[in-house]
Design goal:
Helices cover 46% and strands 13% of the residues. The protein is built from six helices and 20 strands. Helix 1 packs antiparallel against helix 2, helix 2 runs antiparallel to helix 3 and helix 3 runs antiparallel to helix 4. It starts with a helix and ends in a 10-residue tail after the last helix.
């Protein structure tokens, strides 16, 4: 543009103001200015594009750094959870009852703080309760030797550990009665596998459980399931209840199986609601039995059942015509 202007001035000064030449100069100047503007605009666009690309690269690099940092934090959390879980499970294998108790409470804290760990931790607690266990004698003989006393003390301490495991389960399987403000410590949708477990004074009243298996379990002392909700299957096949078995006001959505179960104490099923298939085939009821107000969506199976204190009238109507229905003992 400067060269064009200089040339124009030179021509004007050197040759006068010839109209044609002046027009040519004007045209050349206009073209020069226009061309210069295009060049300036092109350079500005290039600078803008370069700036945008630079900002984009910085943004992508920042996003990548954030993702890497997030993954690093997640990995650190996962490693920490694994460490805590492993340490707590190792504590459950200790010979010392206080250490085992510490392991239980460590698992409880871990489950409360990590939703994804709840079912695995419930599985660990159930596995612990499924381990063979012999209850201590009600009273130790005065002349018992040191070995007998040591074994008795071990069983007493282990009973406390098992009761703690049961309390942890019952506390977190019981939802807050105010459903608008559910308790954050409620572990929803849990499955229980307590087949063959020895359970002591179980307090599962008002609990909400998904699938639960108590096949062959032995309930020592009262077993309370009154007001509980079984959202899937509830299986008590061949279970033994040495104390009172309370299932009054239970709500069972899936199948409920009590085939071959034995209720040594009272068996209370008053106002229970069974929406799925229900079976008591070959079950035995030596104690008082109550089914007042119980509702069955499907006809329950009572074939082969034994009521030692008379058949409840609510049950008798289902036993009519069922093969193997015995007379009351």
């Amino acid at each position: 543009m400067v060269l064009v202007a200089v040339a124009a001035v030179w021509l004007l000064l050197g040759f006068g103001l010839d109209r044609d030449r002046l027009d040519a100069i004007r045209t050349g100047g206009t073209l020069g200015v226009g061309l210069g503007g295009v060049v300036v605009l092109w350079l500005a666009v290039r600078r803008q594009r370069s700036t945008e690309l630079d900002l984009l690269q910085k943004y992508e690099a920042h996003q990548l750094a954030e993702r890497v940092a997030a993954h690093a934090r997640e990995d650190a959390v996962e490693r920490r959870i694994t460490e805590l879980y492993t340490k707590a499970v190792e504590q459950l294998g200790s010979e010392k009852a206080p250490v085992r108790l510490g392991g239980l409470y460590a698992l409880e804290r871990l489950a409360n703080n990590n939703f994804g760990q709840r079912q695995p931790i419930v599985n660990v607690l159930c596995a612990y309760l499924r381990m063979p266990y012999t209850l201590p004698d009600a009273q130790l003989a005065d002349d018992a030797d040191d070995t007998t006393r040591a074994i008795h003390e071990q069983r007493v301490q282990e009973r406390e550990v098992r009761l703690a495991a049961q309390r942890i389960l019952s506390a977190h399987l019981r939802p807050d009665p105010n459903f608008d403000q559910p308790d954050e410590t409620f572990w929803a949708g849990m499955d229980l596998d307590l087949a063959g477990a020895t359970l002591i004074n179980l307090q599962f009243q008002n609990c909400r459980i998904n699938n639960c298996t108590f096949d062959g379990a032995e309930f020592t002392g009262p077993a309370r399931f009154d007001g509980a909700e079984f959202t899937e299957e509830a299986v008590f096949i061949s279970a033994k209840f040495t104390g009172q078995g309370r299932f009054d006001s239970v709500e069972s959505t899936g199948a409920a199986r009590f085939d071959g179960a034995k209720f040594v104490g009272d068996a209370l099923f008053a106002s229970a609601e069974f929406a799925g298939s229900t079976g008591f085939a070959s079950a035995e009821f030596p104690g008082f039995t109550k089914f007042d107000g119980a509702e069955f969506a499907l006809e329950p199976q009572f074939d082969g059942v034994t009521f030692h204190r008379g058949t409840p009238p609510e049950v008798a109507r289902f036993m009519d015509g069922q093969p193997g229905a015995p007379a009351d003992a």
